[in-house]
Amino acid sequence: MRATIREVSEAAGVSIKTVSRVLNKERYVREDTRKRVEDAVERLGYRPSAAARMLAGRRSFQIGLLCDNPGPQYIYETQAGARDRCQSGGYRMIYQPCDTGSEKMVAEVMALIDETHVDGLILSPPVSDHALLLAALDQRGIPYARIAPGDQQDRAPSVEIDDAAAAREMTQRLIALGHRRVAFVLGPADHLASQRRAAGYRAALSDAGIALDDALVVSGRFDFPSGRTAAEQLLDLGPAAPTAIFAGNDAMAAGVLAVAHERGISVPHDLSIVGFDDFEVAQMVWPPLTTVRQPIRELSAIAAGFLIDGAEPDMHLLLDYQLVERGTTAPPRG
Q1: pLDDT single digits (tens) 56-110
Q2: What is the distance between the alpha carbons of residues 293 and 278, in angstroms, rounded to a whole number?
Q3: What domains sit in the chain, N to C, each tagged with a CATH number?
């Protein structure tokens, strides 16, 4: 038989109300009392009824995560961080894929809210900058937290890294190795992180007095096939081809690396390649990829915590990034 909250209260020697307060992670519960309740819950295998909790507290104890990103690893890491934080806070995470280019997106999100009664939404980029969605959520008073928002950072609690600074530092590292023809593979045009990383790349060239060559800046989609296409375009430039290629994420960098191998180009001796994210693929390719590590799990976990803890709208956190040097970078030959 399923354990009841009354059995938990009897086993812990406290009232049902106290058990409820512990389960809801409320403050002002003595630590020894909290521990007795948690021990009783674990010993009895008690699982609270989501429906009962919702009726009692007018909350669903559910948080929605909205993503529009072609990278499966990005989606997985974002889900994992948000899910872990929700579980530790007694919440359930609901994942909803989105298409920010669809006219139906706002209606689909509103339907999710009506059907699940989520207590809040985590908006990952580029959803975090969808003007119509933000206006609709504000109008209905739905709490939300944003990952890497582009503007109006005091509109809702948010968390990010400095994409522009990270890309600038990585480009500076390539220039310090001796590279002067450094190419950049953009992500989707509507993705703010793509624009910020490109801005950092351009700033590093300017710092070094290197003129921007538009032929060395090509578009991608944050996926492996677009990285391949970009590499074909760049390596077909002949004598004007780059000696280093900075891909806007690891998936595109893996595509660039694959084309280099197919053409018999030695990496890193004839071509240096770097990426961004430090996903698992960065250590699976050969040579292992030099890249920028951003803490995606931590970003989404913090965003979930904003909603669970009721953070103020002007709460904004900037997390650290890290340059990870592996085997795809070296000084240019000759």
Answers
A1: 556 788 999 999 977 788 899 999 999 999 999 889 999 999 998 899 999 999 9
A2: 5
A3: 5-48 (1.10.260.40), 62-160+297-320 (3.40.50.2300), 163-295 (3.40.50.2300)
